[in-house]
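Late entry, written up from scratch paper. The run itself happened at the end of the previous shift, but nothing got recorded in the book at the time, so transcribing now.
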Amino acid sequence: MKHLFKNIFRSIVTVFTVTMFFSCEDNFREIQKINLTSLSPAGVGEDIRMVYTDSARVRAILTSPRYQDYSNRSFEFAEFPDGVMVEFFDDNNNKSTIKADYGILYNQTSLVDLQGNVELVTHDGVTLTTSQLYWDQKNEWIFTEKRFKFTSEDFDVDAERLDANRDFTTFFTGEGTGDVNLDEN
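Output as recorded:
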């Protein structure tokens, strides 16, 4: 009799343990789903074209195959996982372009991080290529810690690290090689 109660008790404990295990597994899967949902974008756009205007003038046109809006996060951002191209227009309607394989815009800091085959071409023939480039929109400043190539009428520079204003009139760099044309006056 004692042996029978022992076997019944073991069976009950085994059934209870298995039930608890599967119950925990279901809860764990639900928690995983909640976490995945919180990482989901607030909105997604396909083949987008955004036109930025100021005082009835087109200032920039952004195009991308895919746009993901994470404004539902505490630190809001927008992501362009499949690449991005932006055409900028100055006061004289001169166009400059920048392209990258990936882009992310941090809304609160107005910082843009461009990655993968980044190419900037200005209306006056300046070309900048690198694997990553940051654009500080508030200060109109670009920078990278990666290797870059900068070519213009007067410069042909291949170097690491770049800090420059938007017009490249202020330009700081790390070690590199290149050619610079100087006016003797």
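Residues 43-180 form a domain with the lipopolysaccharide transport protein A fold fold (CATH 2.60.450.10).
(Scratch paper discarded after transcription.)
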